[in-house]
TrEMBL record:
Keywords: ATP-binding, Cell membrane, Hydrolase, Membrane, Nucleotide-binding, Translocase, Transport. PANTHER family: ENERGY-COUPLING FACTOR TRANSPORTER ATP-BINDING PROTEIN ECFA1, HEAVY METAL TRANSPORTER. This is ABC transporter, ATP-binding protein. It comes from Roseburia intestinalis L1-82. GO terms for molecular function: ATP binding; ATP hydrolysis activity; ATPase-coupled transmembrane transporter activity. It is a peripheral membrane protein. Its EC number is 3.6.3.-. Belongs to the ABC transporter superfamily. Gene3D superfamilies: P-loop containing nucleotide triphosphate hydrolases.
């Protein structure tokens, strides 16, 4: 875990012809990096994450995850390496209770029962929700659903976790809890978010997207404390910096 890297080279993508959404995107990410993907509404953050897990394919350019080039034929392999946590946890949880949801992927892989039980237990423990194992999904709070959705990805034993707006709709306590959990992970993480405070607290590196292009890629603290840069691209300083 944690040694896989991502390489994105000159990627271009459009949903509709004549309307480019991502343009000439190139970056690499190694091992245990924790990368925030930030940008104004419509900048292309979610689209980039979706391309990285093969929900869409680039018009040109390439994506390589570990040794595997992302293409239709390698999709099953890529999905085992890279786990995608949806913005809306509900879309990820569909079994009657938390345990069954987290056990679903390893069961689906045809793993022996003991291995399924072990992975499920470890995934629940990693996000500190072992006590919720038997709880029906509809009785979970928003923050608990988010942690359960992450656990369903961890039980697949991915090398990379991609998260779309993980802090959206979380109250301050759940938000703090999620920050703690993410900072305990040694996975390569890509976190697309509007919540620059959350990115500040969880990501070493930040990629700033504007109108489908990377305008900055570097140290989170440098990029997110540059008021002029952020304002030029439709963002504002993290709130915590205003308080300082
Ligand atoms: N399925 C789709 N079909 C056509 N256009 C789409 C589709 N999904 C997104 N878009 C367009 O692609 C652009 C980038 O959208 P995307 O969701 O990637 O941006 P984002 O940076 O994640 O935005 P937000 O912060 O608002 O979630 C937007 O102009 C959006 O309208």
């Amino acid at each position: 875990m944690g040694q896989i890297n991502i390489e994105v080279t000159h990627l271009n993508f459009s949903y509709e012809k004549q309307n480019p959404i991502l343009q000439d995107i190139s970056f690499t990410a190694d091992g245990q990096a924790s990368i925030g993907v930030v940008g104004a509404n419509g900048a292309g953050k979610s689209t980039l994450l979706k391309l990285l897990v093969g929900l869409y394919f680039p018009d040109s350019g390439s994506i390589r995850i570990g040794d595997v080039p992302l293409q239709k034929e390698t999709l099953a392999q890529i999905r085992k390496i890279a786990g995608y946590v949806f913005q809306d946890s509900e879309s990820q949880l569909f079994m009657p209770n938390v345990y069954e949801d987290v056990a679903f992927a390893p069961q689906n892989y045809g793993l022996p029962e003991e291995e399924v039980a072990y992975r499920t237990k470890m995934a629940l423990a990693a996000v500190h929700i072992g006590h919720l194992a038997k709880k029906p999904i509809h009785k979970l709070s928003g923050g608990e659903k988010k942690l359960a959705a992450i656990a369903t990805i961890l039980s697949m034993k991915p090398d990379i976790i991609l998260m779309d707006e993980p802090s959206a709709a979380l109250d301050p306590q759940n938000r703090r809890n999620l920050i703690r959990v993410l900072n305990e992970f040694s996975y390569l993480k890509l976190i697309a978010s509007h919540d620059l405070d959350f990115v500040w607290d969880t990501c070493d590196r930040t990629i700033l997207l504007s109108e489908g292009r990377i305008v900055c890629d570097g140290d989170t603290r440098e990029i997110l404390s540059d008021r002029k840069l952020l304002e030029t691209h439709g963002l504002e300083l993290p709130l915590s910096l205003y308080r300082k």
